[in-house]
């Protein structure tokens, strides 16, 4: 049923900011040649072509593709705003410039690299950073060198949109090797957006009844109290969530009360049905519908894992993600600043942070949760829903670097919870410890990694266990970074079995201690129940 006439609001003009960021290659280079012991020559003029050949992983050390710059070398590059494919900012709208480089070479004072940007407003070069003290002949991957915050980025862009960078190789007895030099440009464009009507918002959200929350056409969070009255077989309150429409009668979301026991296995596609756990947490894609039904027949509640904050190129629905949701337009995706860590492998097996503000991401996540419902999962565990805390203007290594804010993350995580509940699925809040107080009411239980090791479980006691919601915790004797914690038994609180975390009564928090970072039932060192 359409909205009533008096529910339709007039569109309003909203002044909004459209931030953006893109990595670009240089348009031209100085003609100065280098003396190159390895046989490659041409200096900056051949840097772009050679570094493009190094595509194995984001931060790979491609020795054969280096350009060697001999002592006392100076070479400059010219970048242009016209190379941007995302937007057309004016020089005055540029807010940050960062040089992205990969290199190794001498770190001594007599023979180190120095990176500079040209300040057009004063016709002078400004030093951004140098390699002194970064290690002598140490491979330095994905180094991001940002313009100091005391400098106005617009002063480094000419009236025609040119940006100049320069690298200086200090005098000494040894050459140094450069693998890549690119520029990340960030901008902020002020624009006027006319907000859509409530009716248009409801139509774009695909809602014809009940309360609907989402992001409007101007990128603002918005809630419409009613998109119309529900008609049969729709029922407002579908999925057990007030004012959310569902199909047929309302359902009851599975409960996960305090003290529930669990098993977490994301690596096997089949585990024994007789494990001492009331809840099985398994991978959504790797676990068959038949196996999930087998677990449920054995009396288990099944929680299905998927990543809601990252793009994994090996997943069966990977082709459903628009490229601009995980790779900035114009950049080499294999060397993207959005790649998680430095573990990409040749031929696939790589993970990128997602820009979850984009509708394309939410379309895929809705499909994943529908898949979980179709397979018979009782709840979902969306992972990597703390991208905002990995977003850093200074260094993009292992960072989201989409300009995500805490408010963006809260809105997305609540959207995940609302969507899960509309499908009658429970949902776990995975990590995102800093936002637990703001999100706990929207989630049915919590899954955390290493809150005991880092002494940050307290929020879960206040916001989950005190409200009779389960807290599932995983600790590692040897984590993915190689750090070892000598867990031997539950200590600190003794019989209450909280493994050193105070304030928990027996059964408040259920902990699995894994021997390594591999999450599978046969890798457990012990359970803390």
UniProtKB/TrEMBL annotation:
InterPro entries: Aldolase_TIM, GH, GH114_assoc, GH114_TIM-barrel. SUPFAM superfamilies: (Trans)glycosidases. Residues 1-12 have a biased composition (Basic and acidic residues). Residues 1-21 are annotated as: Disordered. Residues 261-481 form the Glycoside-hydrolase family GH114 TIM-barrel domain. Signal peptide: none annotated. Residues 60-179 form the Glycosyl-hydrolase 114-associated domain. This is Glycoside-hydrolase family GH114 TIM-barrel domain-containing protein. It comes from the Bacteria.
């Amino acid at each position: 049923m359409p909205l009533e006439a008096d529910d339709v609001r007039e569109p309003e003009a909203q002044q909004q900011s459209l931030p953006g960021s893109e990595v670009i290659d240089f348009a031209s280079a100085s003609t100065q040649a280098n003396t190159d012991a390895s046989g490659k020559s041409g200096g900056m003029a051949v840097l772009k072509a050679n570094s493009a050949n190094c595509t194995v992983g984001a931060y790979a050390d491609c020795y054969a593709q280096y350009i060697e710059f001999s002592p006392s070398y100076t070479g400059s590059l010219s970048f242009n705003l016209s190379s941007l494919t995302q937007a057309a900012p004016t020089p005055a709208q540029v807010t940050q410039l960062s040089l992205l480089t990969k290199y190794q070479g001498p770190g001594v004072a007599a023979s180190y690299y120095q990176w500079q940007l040209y300040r057009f407003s004063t016709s002078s070069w400004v030093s951004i950073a140098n390699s002194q003290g970064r290690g002598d002949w140490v491979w330095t991957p994905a180094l991001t060198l940002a313009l100091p915050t005391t400098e106005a980025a617009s002063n480094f862009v000419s009236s025609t949109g040119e940006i100049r960078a320069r690298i200086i190789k200090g005098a000494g007895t040894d050459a140094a090797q450069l693998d890549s030099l690119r520029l990340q440009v960030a901008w902020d464009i002020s624009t006027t957006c006319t907000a859509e009507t409530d009716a248009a918002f409801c139509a774009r959200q695909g809602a014809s009844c009940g309360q609907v929350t989402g992001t409007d056409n101007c990128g603002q969070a918005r809630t419409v109290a009613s998109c119309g009255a529900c008609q049969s077989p729709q029922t407002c309150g579908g999925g057990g969530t007030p004012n959310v429409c569902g199909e047929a009668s309302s359902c009851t979301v599975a409960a996960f009360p305090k003290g529930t026991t669990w098993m977490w296995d994301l690596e096997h596609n089949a585990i024994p049905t007789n494990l001492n756990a009331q809840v099985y947490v398994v991978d959504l894609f790797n676990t068959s519908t038949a196996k999930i039904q087998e677990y449920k027949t054995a009396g288990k509640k099944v929680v299905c894992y998927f990543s809601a904050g990252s793009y994994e190129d090996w997943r069966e629905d990977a082709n459903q993600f628009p490229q601009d949701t995980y790779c900035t337009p114009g950049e080499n995706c294999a060397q993207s600043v959005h790649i998680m860590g430095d573990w990409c492998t040749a031929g696939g097996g790589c993970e990128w942070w997602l820009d979850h503000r984009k509708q394309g991401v939410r379309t895929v996540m809705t499909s994943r949760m529908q898949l979980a419902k179709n397979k018979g999962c009782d709840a979902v565990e969306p992972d990597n829903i703390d991208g905002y805390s990995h977003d850093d203007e200074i260094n993009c290594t292992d960072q989201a670097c989409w300009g995500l804010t805490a408010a963006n993350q809260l809105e997305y995580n609540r959207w995940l919870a609302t969507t899960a509940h509309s499908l009658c699925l429970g949902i776990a809040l995975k990590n995102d410890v800093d936002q637990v107080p703001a999100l706990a009411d929207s989630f049915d239980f919590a899954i955390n990694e290493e809150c005991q090791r880092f002494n940050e479980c307290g929020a879960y006691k206040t916001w989950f266990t005190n409200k009779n919601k389960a807290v599932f915790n995983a600790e590692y004797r040897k984590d993915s970074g190689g750090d070892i914690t000598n867990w031997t038994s539950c200590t600190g609180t003794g019989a209450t079995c909280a493994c050193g975390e105070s304030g928990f009564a027996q059964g408040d928090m259920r902990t699995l201690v894994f021997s390594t970072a591999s999450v599978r039932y046969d890798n457990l060192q012990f359970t803390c129940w």
